[in-house]
Amino acid sequence: MTSIPIDRVAEDDLVRMAGVIKCLGHPLRLRLLEALEDGERSVSDLQAGTGATQAAVSQQLAILRGRGVVDHRREGPNVYYWIIEPRVSVILDCVRNCAP
User: 63 burial class (0-12, 13-18, 19+ CB within 10 angstroms)?
Assistant: First the structure.
């Protein structure tokens, strides 16, 4: 019997990616990330695109930001978000490919 190497990914990387995957386990967060795949969007654009309340969108974006998945900038009264985790598109592709 051949042994399978289990140390192919550094422990720190595994912990970080587990956190990213865990935080993606929410429908609104996935929808927000889909909207951000094409580039930077304002909170009001994301709210309009998802139909969610401003509070819900802001709350979910804060979670994504806390996990290092997105970043933001302020421009006057508007806040803009974009994806900074490069593997998000790969994960979203996996989710889309698993959908019935």
Answer: middle
